[in-house]
From TrEMBL:
InterPro entries: DUF7455 (IPR055878). Residues 17-64 form the DUF7455 domain. This is DUF7455 domain-containing protein. It comes from the Bacteria. It comes from Actinoplanes campanulatus.
Amino acid sequence: MTPTLTPPAGSLAGPAADERCDRCNAAGKLRLTLAGGGELVFCGHHANRYAEDLVKIAVQYAADPEFTWRGADMMSNSSN
């Protein structure tokens, strides 16, 4: 088994106003921290479109307060 470092809860900030989607360059709505320590930012469209796959690789997420990510429930269910 390979150990994974997980950032402390609450340490991940949502995307800044000037951050852009890593997929299409639209305004960022969701920031993910990956198990390997990297981060990705997605617009609302791509965050929800790829939610099932993103949940598999993310250890933590932070969303814009006005954005509801479809993967949020999946993230909370996968930690149980």
